[in-house]
């Protein structure tokens, strides 16, 4: 770390050179800052220079830093080897007339990106990619020179032949995005193998690399490697994580590409889908090369130290001996007396190409790149095998266009990204190209998959070897339809089937195609999904078999209970209301009604919110569902005609359970297996285990729980009282549910408990099934308090009267429980400004009566009918004195909402109750009287990432106050921001901390979308587009 400014010694020269930390390529670097700090330069790494050289270096560096830029980029979509997100890197100007900036391929990126270049004077200019090499780690950006107003740009010349061992160099670039740093070293090697960054990462090959101990960091990817004259002799690309070694790309093929781009020509690149490695003569001798061959090679090229050898040939490629169908190529055994081989094999040693002797990669690719779609002749040496003699062979290959096997478009559907398998990934995993479509992100579409890097080989029984085949299949499939998809993980031979629900309702479906001329991606959306054909007559399925033997009464009762239990799997398209889209939501529910509408009850860990896709499984049948009620539990409906006839609603036990009752817990596993356990009720009381979560989400509070002594291994089911006679039917007394929260370390946790089905669930069910079939909302008023309970022995020492003491004891005997008076745990909402705190319920208040009714259990609060009252009279024990308070009821905040908005990649919705629970009393700007604009989540690769913060409220947009998501939509229509504009967003946290950020408009990839709850829709939600229409075309027009 540098000393503080006032502590720094006088610099020996105008420039100092700081040291850069452990190197790594930008795409595997740790999270990078998007800040560009000032230039600072300190002494170089451990090699001395003369005074004259020092002065020359000072002059050179003072000049060249005006041509070196910090690059701040955002990958908007996962693609090929790259993931979505922000990063910083380095580049340098190589042609100021045409506005060309050279950087690495993993910086220019094959994926869609938005990026800017920041010069040394902090002048920022938009840049866009015009070329990224399919294999070698270099790419080129372009900017408009006229956009620069305050700097005289220095052009850095490329001199690839100036590199030699022992050359003093300086590497100028970003130090992990924080500083433009300059680090000195000495070139140690010019013939290092290309570095490997991992099997799922981008890797360079078929080239030499240079090496020096400069210790460059991730943010310095794309930095020029300069000699003392200020010429770029190599391009910094990556480095070792375990040493100070840094790796530089030679510039020979870069110069060729730059010259073609300057001339407005296409940069043709050829491939044999073959990987070569330069091997020294001693290695080649071990591969079978004779001493005479070595002597001839050394005499012909005294400076050469070896030849190129084949190490990998991709099946089906131009140099493969096998065709795509697996059959061998049919070629003559010899030509003009020269033995011929059908293809290349690992171990082959290359001597010549088109009769030109080859010793380096540059020699070979100077021929291949200029011979696209033409045949070339390779002369190779192949060691004998299976008794055959070693010898020289000719291999004739037709050069393939390398760009043709480098994807430049992708399909986005259901949040998933698909594109053709690239040569990069095929080479990494040794997978033949055009054998499946690569999944770069599984998104919301593939419910069964949480990973990427696999192939889609068929969809709905139709092969999908290429992206075009996948698009042709997808566009014919209706929305919501469930289809089989065959997948194959890269590098593994076996295929697997997964069932997928097609999503065209929560995400837009579009094909994006790269245009290197404009530096943008053209968006073409798929036409609307076709309508699914429905059967003209819906009927219940009858699986009954009259020939079956009748079970005993107990088994028959168990079968009826099992038939009424339902497994559920839910997926959230976006992170909303504190629930993350990356989680899997599963659980067990119970059918509580069939007529007039079917209803299933679930806990909130299984069905967390309303905007989701639901897959129900009951009696071995699977079908979708839709949420119709969301409170302390969820009620889901479905198409009742899909149920088998043996499914019925259980009978209810209307006698409340008591402590020490003998009961049976019956549950269901994820595999539809019935589990049961005979046990006893051990306690009935408050749920004191739920804690406020981060991010804030719904939690079960103020509900009386029923706990059993032992429970089966399941996450849901029912509690029944053990029948007195074997012939008595099983009657459900409680719903056995999962409850989720977080522990003190912030880790998610879950446990099971029961709730009285007659007190909490059936009243809501009866309302929904009433004559009007109207929607039922959770209670609209409450006391704004979270209650807990406390042992009576503790309360008795706090001034409780003997009369009330005896009353608590008597009330507890009715359910054989321990008397535990209610105590105010915390307020769920801040008090109004200026409110008299003593007039409201306070933490530690003991609740004795509400509206003249003694309160002994939390379940009794459900009988108060708070929705019809503005105030209630509460008697509390406070400070050893009973006090009478007139407490106003307050409007309950819902745990979900009816409108969701995507705004620059941030997911906005109204404030939910769990968020208000955690608002600090000092957070006066948090909206408490309006629905507010709450940030539920932010998408990777979006402009909102690292700017608009999740769990914050948006207060203003471009200075205009917004109090609801509808205000945001109205502002979008009014402003009609242009692509590339910056929008100011003011936001506030739960602690009351405000911040102002700027967000860059990107309507091409992140238009404003809105989803509204719509009962007329089959699944209950309607998608609307509010911006970005100008960037949309329809596929096939």
Automatic annotation (TrEMBL):
Signal sequence bounds: none
SMART domains for the chain: PDZ
Presence of the UniProt keyword Cell membrane in the record: no
UniProt feature, compositional bias: Acidic residues: 544-554
InterPro entries according to UniProt: PDZ, PDZ-like_dom, PDZ_sf, Peptidase_S1_PA, Peptidase_S1_PA_chymotrypsin
Record region (Disordered): 1-29, 533-556
Transmembrane segments: none
Gene Ontology process terms (BP): apoptotic process
Comp. bias (Low complexity): 16-25
Domain PDZ: 781-880, 902-991
Keyword Protein biosynthesis found: no
Pfam families: PDZ_1, Trypsin_2
Sequence ranges of Basic and acidic residues compositional bias: 533-543
CDD domains reported in the protein's UniProt record: PDZ2-4_Nma111p-like (cd06719)
Keywords, ordered alphabetically: Apoptosis
SUPFAM superfamilies: PDZ domain-like (SSF50156), Trypsin-like serine proteases (SSF50494)
Name assigned to this protein: PDZ domain-containing protein
């Amino acid at each position: 770390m540098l000393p503080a400014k006032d502590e720094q010694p006088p610099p020996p020269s105008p420039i100092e050179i700081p040291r850069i930390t452990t190197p790594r390529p930008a795409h595997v670097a740790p999270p990078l800052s998007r800040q560009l700090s000032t230039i600072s330069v300190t002494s170089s790494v451990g090699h001395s220079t003369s005074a004259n050289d020092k002065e020359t270096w000072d002059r050179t560096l003072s000049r060249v830093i005006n041509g070196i830029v910090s690059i701040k980029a955002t990958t908007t979509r996962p693609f090929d080897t790259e993931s979505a997100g922000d990063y910083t890197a380095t580049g340098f100007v190589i042609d100021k007339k045409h506005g060309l900036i050279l950087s690495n391929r993993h910086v220019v990126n094959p994926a869609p990106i938005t990026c800017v270049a920041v010069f040394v004077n902090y002048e920022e200019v938009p840049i866009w990619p015009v070329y990224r090499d399919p294999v070698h780690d270099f790419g080129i950006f372009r900017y408009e020179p006229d956009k620069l107003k305050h700097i005289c740009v220095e052009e850095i010349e490329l001199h690839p032949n100036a590199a030699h061992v022992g050359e003093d160099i300086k590497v100028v670039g970003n130090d992990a995005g924080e500083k433009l740093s300059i680090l000195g070293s000495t070139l140690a090697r010019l013939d290092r193998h290309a570095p490997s960054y991992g099997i799922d990462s981008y890797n360079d090959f078929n080239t030499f690399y240079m090496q020096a101990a400069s210790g460059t960091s991730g943010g310095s990817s794309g930095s020029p490697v300069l000699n003392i004259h200020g010429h770029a002799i190599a391009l910094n690309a990556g480095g070792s994580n375990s040493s100070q070694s840094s790796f530089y790309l030679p510039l020979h093929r870069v110069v060729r590409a730059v010259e073609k781009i300057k001339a407005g020509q296409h940069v043709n690149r050829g491939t044999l889908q073959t990987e070569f490695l330069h091997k020294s003569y001693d290695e080649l001798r071990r591969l079978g090369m004779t001493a005479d061959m070595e002597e001839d090679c050394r005499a012909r090229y005294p400076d050469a130290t070896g030849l190129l050898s084949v190490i990998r040939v991709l099946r089906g490629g131009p140099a493969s001996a096998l065709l795509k169908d697996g059959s061998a190529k049919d070629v003559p055994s010899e030509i003009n007396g020269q033995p011929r081989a059908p293809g290349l094999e690992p171990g082959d040693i290359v001597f010549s190409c088109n009769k030109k002797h080859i010793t380096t990669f540059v020699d070979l690719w100077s021929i291949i790149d200029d011979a696209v779609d033409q045949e070339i002749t390779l002369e190779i040496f192949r060691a004998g095998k299976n008794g055959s003699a070693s010898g020289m062979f000719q291999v004739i290959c037709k050069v393939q266009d390398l760009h043709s096997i480098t994807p430049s478009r992708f399909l986005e559907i259901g949040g998933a990204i698909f594109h053709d398998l690239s040569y990069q990934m095929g080479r990494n995993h040794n997978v033949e190209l055009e054998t499946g479509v690569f999944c770069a992100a599984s998104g919301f579409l593939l419910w069964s998959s949480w990973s990427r890097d696999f192939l889609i080989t068929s969809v709905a029984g139709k092969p999908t070897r290429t992206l075009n085949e996948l698009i042709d299949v997808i566009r014919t499939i209706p929305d919501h339809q469930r289809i089989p998809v065959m997948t194959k993980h890269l590098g593994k031979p076996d295929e697997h089937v997964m069932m997928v629900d097609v999503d065209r309702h929560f995400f837009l479906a579009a094909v994006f195609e790269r245009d290197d001329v404009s530096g943008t991606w053209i968006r073409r959306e798929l036409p609307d999904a076709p309508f699914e054909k429905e059967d003209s007559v819906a009927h219940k399925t009858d699986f009954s078999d009259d020939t079956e033997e009748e079970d005993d009464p107990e088994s028959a009762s168990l079968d009826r209970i099992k038939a009424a239990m339902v497994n559920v799997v839910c997926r959230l398209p976006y992170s909303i209301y504190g629930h993350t889209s990356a989680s899997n939501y599963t659980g067990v529910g119970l059918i509580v009604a069939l007529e007039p509408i079917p209803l299933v009850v679930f806990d909130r860990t299984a069905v967390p919110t309303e905007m989701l896709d639901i897959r129900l499984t009951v009696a071995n049948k699977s079908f979708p569902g839709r949420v119709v009620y969301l409170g302390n539990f969820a009620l889901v409906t479905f198409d009742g005609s899909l149920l088998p006839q043996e499914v019925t609603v259980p009978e209810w036990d209307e006698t409340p359970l008591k402590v020490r009752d003998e009961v049976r817990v019956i549950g269901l596993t994820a595999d539809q297996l019935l589990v049961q356990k005979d046990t006893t009720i051990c306690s009935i009381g408050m749920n004191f285990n739920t804690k406020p979560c981060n991010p804030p989400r719904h939690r079960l509070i103020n509900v009386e729980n029923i706990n059993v002594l032992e429970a089966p291994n399941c996450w849901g089911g029912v509690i029944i009282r053990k029948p007195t006679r074997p012939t008595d039917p099983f009657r459900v007394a409680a719903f056995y549910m999962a409850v989720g929260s977080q522990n003190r370390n912030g880790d998610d946790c879950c446990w099971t408990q029961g709730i009285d089905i007659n007190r909490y669930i059936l009243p809501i069910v009866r309302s929904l099934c009433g004559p009007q079939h109207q929607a039922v909302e959770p209670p609209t008023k409450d006391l704004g308090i979270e209650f807990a309970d406390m042992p009576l022995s503790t309360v008795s020492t706090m001034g409780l009267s003997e009369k009330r003491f005896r009353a608590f004891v008597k009330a507890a005997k009715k359910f054989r429980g321990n008397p535990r008076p209610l105590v105010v745990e915390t307020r769920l909402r801040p008090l109004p400004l200026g409110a008299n705190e003593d007039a409201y319920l306070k933490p530690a208040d003991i609740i004795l009566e509400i509206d003249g009714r003694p309160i002994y259990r939390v379940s009794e609060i459900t009988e108060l009918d708070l929705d019809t009252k503005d105030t209630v009279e509460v008697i509390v024990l406070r400070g050893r004195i009973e006090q009478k308070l007139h407490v106003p009821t307050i409007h309950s905040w819902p745990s979900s909402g009816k409108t969701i908005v995507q705004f620059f990649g941030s997911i906005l919705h109204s404030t939910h109750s769990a968020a208000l629970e955690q608002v600090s009393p000092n957070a006066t700007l948090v909206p408490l009287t309006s629905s507010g604009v709450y940030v539920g989540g932010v998408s990777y690769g979006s402009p909102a990432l690292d700017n608009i913060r999740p769990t914050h409220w948006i207060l203003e947009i471009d200075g205009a106050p917004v109090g609801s998501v509808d205000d945001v939509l109205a502002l979008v229509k009014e402003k009609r921001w242009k692509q590339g504009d910056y929008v100011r967003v003011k936001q506030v946290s739960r602690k009351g901390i405000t911040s102002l950020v700027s967000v860059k408009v990107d309507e091409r990839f992140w238009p404003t979308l809105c989803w509204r709850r719509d009962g007329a829709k089959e699944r209950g939600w309607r998608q609307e587009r509010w911006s970005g229409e100008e960037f949309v075309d329809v596929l096939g027009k």
